[in-house]
């Protein structure tokens, strides 16, 4: 549905994308993860036909068509990172304008406002909207067509709880309906909740592509067990270190890094050693820290 084939984009001497090859299949949600300037927005704009690659091709739809062609653009819906609408219009009038531009049925206006959780604000002028409400209005416009390809650039930026729920529901519905979704985000929660795969960009290059299962495994492997014990038996630190390199005893606190199996084994070891646990906490690995490892080439 979305295919990047060795795509590069240069602005003078600046390389925004370098040899990107990536495919988003039907019924799949893929997240682009990376810092500012990593090429995420350029990638989405190339898919939307708004940026022409210096090298390579971007193909959309079935059968595949070059992204810059009008027929390809008809297959997609795009929510840019920053949206703006005439402040004198009401939210409903904005959605109605784009609904007519798309040639869609009249019922789609109410449906889109409902999807974006803007039902009660549709009659208000855009000039009275908060930044988060303007973002939700952009989401309503993006939700109008049942386009096979959905491109979302930082869709949860500035959103409240209702707005977050609207974005999540839209992405989940699109996956269920067999559409292809490509989105960018700085929010680990968005990526972990929505993405079937995560593409990590650094300096315009794709440095890692992780499936949901592999991502979960990597995060689990970077988990940590923290336990406070009443008494630290002699030699406990050495025994834990043999089980999990990096394990440490700091005063009455035991810290054991590792996956769920390693952490369970550490608890068993504590019980066998007679170390009575007073306080216990288990943490999964953090996506932002994993990204830093991937960006540094330590994956």
From TrEMBL:
Residues 2-228 form the ABC transporter domain. It comes from the Bacteria. One of its GO terms (molecular function) is ATP hydrolysis activity. The keyword ATP-binding applies. SUPFAM superfamilies: P-loop containing nucleoside triphosphate hydrolases. Gene3D superfamilies: P-loop containing nucleotide triphosphate hydrolases (3.40.50.300). The keyword Zinc does not apply. Pfam families: ABC_tran (PF00005). Keywords: ATP-binding, Nucleotide-binding, Transport. PROSITE patterns: ABC_TRANSPORTER_2. Belongs to the ABC transporter superfamily. This is ABC transporter ATP-binding protein.
